[in-house]
Task: structure prediction
Amino acid sequence: MSTPLAKFERRFADLLDHLGDLDVAALLDALEDRSIEPDETPIVQGEPHDSMLFVEWGALVVEVDGVQVKTLDPGDVVGEVGLLSPGNATATVRAVKTTLLHVLSADALERLWRDHPEVASTLLQGITRVISERIRSIEGNVDLDEDDENGFLSRLRALFGRAA
Amino acid sequence: MNSDTQRLETFISSLPNFISLSVADRRALVMALELRSFSPGDVLIEQGDKGDGAYFLLSGTLKVELVHKGAIEDLGTLETGALFGVLAMVDGRPRAASCIATTPGEAAFLSRSAFNMLAHGQASIAYPFQRAIGAQIAKNFRSVVRTIRGQLST
Result:
């Protein structure tokens, strides 16, 4: 039977790629579980936020100015930008089903850094890589190059593209 | 310790993400930095060039420009304390934009290879740097989203 640790490792495999079992266990200890109902918004555009959310089960959508730019399924993460640089959220995250999230706050990341520096360092590197790839994905991409509403929306969708 | 080293140490100590560095780690980082002076018009980073490292801006001002469809897009200015050239530091790919001096000043360059050597197996140096790089990338992300939202609303 699969342990919670093994399940978590498998679900978020891309982001946790360079972490060993013990490291993932340390990360799991730093996370807080949060269950939310449909229509709840754990992140609200324009409001302060500093946490990354790991979607364990359920479903959510990401909206910018009321326009849906992404759906989130189990195994996705969201809120990385706020974790790296606490500030006002660039998008709203809304649950569309009852959803279980694992929350990594900026404070928890600092604690992880104090107790397990290698884990915090590797995780940070992974998150930074994911955001860099998204920024790069809209550069020089002719498919996203139209200067009309569709082109701009395509670029926004690419920016919020599927998480690691 | 020469005056350049001392200036760099003082500068690094003033950056919030690097306050927690031990004296030994700070010195190791400073020894890996290369001080570069610039004059107005000097191009520190050129769009499309190989991404070989990142810079700290010690003094002076730079403008950031992107050539897109043959037109120059103004992406803002960089002021003292900025860490720039970070995308290429993360992925080693060509520079996404150009950084051009608008005043005289100084920048400290950290090559990607020097950073990798420093950070290898030494999370105490790697982490503050990753925090600073991550914060800058997050800032870039917010700025791109702001730009696209602005384009959508016009």
